[in-house]
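Q: Here's a chain of 135 amino acids. Please give me its 3D structure as tokens.
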Amino acid sequence: MVIKSAGGWGETENNLVLEGWLGDRIVCRRKVGESRYAAGITARADDSVLYADGDTYDATRITVKAVDNMGNLLPFTQECVEIQLDGPARLLGPARFPLTGGISSFWIRTVGKTGTVRIGVLGVESKAECTVDVK
């Protein structure tokens, strides 16, 4: 059954979509296959909104991943990335670091002002961006 669904050895594209079902709905999906290649990096913040009120600060983690064209993590990548911030936030930690195992995270914090923070992640051959609103 898998050979029929996924193709055969030596075909130009031998890809497979795996789906997990719970009752009558799909709860997870993963694509795997032979036609995968390094597609770039992604950046995703844990929180889309931070708050600048009070005497303290708010913070969130941003996770950076090296991914293939199917969205899967590339665990053997050690690419270095550089973080660039534009807006009312400050980076906590170094601005340059490797993606050990294809993934790493960093933190940003508010600085008492409101606005939109644009987080740029520059890799060797690719880049990613995400935004966080500060209210």
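Q: Can you summarize the key feature?
A: Residues 18 and 24 are 16 Å apart (CA to CA).
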